[in-house]
Amino acid sequence: MAYRLLIGQRSYSSWSLRGYLCFALFDIPVTLEEAVIYSPDFAAQVRAFGGGSSVPAVATENGTILRDSLSIAWHLSEAFPRHGLLPRDDAARAEAQNLIAEMHAGFGALRNACPMNLRTAWADFVPSDAVMADLACLEARLGAALEKSGGPFLFGAPTVADAFYAPVAIRIAGYGLPVSARLRAYVNVILALPAIQEWREAGLAQDEEVSVYDMAPLERRRFPQQI
Predict the structure, then answer these.
(1) Mean pLDDT, 10 residues at a time, over the chain (227 residues)?
(2) Which CATH code for domain 4-83?
(3) Which letter, b or e, does each residue of 52-89 get, where b requires 16 or more Cβ atoms within 10 Å of its Cβ?
């Protein structure tokens, strides 16, 4: 089955990264097309692709359009049941689905305060109480999954849950957020993924700086390979 995936700028679009990793982590072929978020043509580019109002969106070979990262994840897990997008164990599968849904709907304080930015990291970021509450929830949820599976990924081998939490790992690294040793180890596993490194390198080469992601007066620093 041939897929086309519409993404935004790699450096900034966390949801595009989630959609891409649903393919890349499981060696599912896909052709990438790009729309420029915050450009005057963005809405028209998404409509022309057949998407809704945002990225990512996927077009399947038969013309079906998937307009959201969650629908992309569920579609691929059903279309490729042997690829391991979700754990095979029923209890682990249910927990992975819980984590994915929670990421899709929650952690608004962390998302808003710490926009994903693979072009730079920021020094001396001070998290608010709301961000700290999101981090505590992440510690509980991801820590429990890692303890039960033994790692290195949330359910041992990579699953869609890791695709959805990869931008969280990038935020932790980019803003120097305070997390446990267990969560730091997980962040480093995500940062070391070839798919993440290739995505970041392509963004550095192709993307232009977008001013809305500037966190001044915070000082810029080099985005870390590991934390």
Answers:
(1) 93 98 98 96 95 93 92 96 96 97 95 97 98 98 97 98 98 98 98 98 95 96 96
(2) 3.40.30.10
(3) eebbbbbbeeeeeebbbbbbbbbbbbeebeeebbbbee
